[in-house]
Amino acid sequence: MEKLNIGIILGSTRQGRLSPQVGKWVKEICQQHKDANYEILDIADYNLPFFGTGTEKEEGIIAWKKKLSSMDGFIFIVQEYNHSLTGALKNALDSAYEEWNDKAAGIVSYGSTGGARAAEHLRGILGELSIATVRTHPTLSIFTDFTEFKVFKPADIHINYVTTMLSQILLWSKALKAVRKS
User: Fold this and answer.
1) Contact yes or no for 88/43 (Cβ under 8 A)
2) How far are the Cα atoms of 52, 88, 116, 151 from residue 10, in angstroms, in the given order?
3) Which of 51, 40, 30, 31 is nearest to 10 (CA)?
4) Is the pLDDT of residue 1 over 80?
5) Is there a contact between 128 and 100 (Cβ–Cβ < 8 Å)?
6) Where are the beta strands (DSSP E) in the chain?
7) Is 52 helix (H, G, I), strand (E, B) or coil?
8) Whole-number Å distance between alpha carbons of 82 and 85
């Protein structure tokens, strides 16, 4: 059987962001599960114009949509800013539509309250894009899982949550891949 492709989306483009550290850690855990290929998708690499301001023929938009189309599921690394997700992530979500449809996703969030509010906002948006989100949601505290708010040092318990979330993503991604082929 063909392996699934799971994209780990870094949800921030800000200077000094922590999402690359969290994304790398999630990818390392995922790679222990050989049922899929895992790739970090950094929205900063795509130079996406603000939604509605371009022609949708910009290289970044075309490359973003092509990459999303090649994925069977996603893990969103979401940080909470001002009680919600970043504008950059919302823009990246809005920059595609059909490429998201009938795929599964999990959310790993972080912030002062574990990023829970950003994750809940994201769930509503993902539902509108026909992305099925899984139940297990690892939440990381900026106070206890980061040293001096800069270096990611997660508690070991989080590995169990990421592993459970990944199992759910793989199950749903496989099922939804069959749906997309029908």
Assistant:
1) yes
2) 22, 10, 16, 16
3) 40
4) no
5) no
6) 4-10, 36-42, 73-79, 103-111, 131-133, 139-141, 146-147, 151-152
7) coil
8) 8
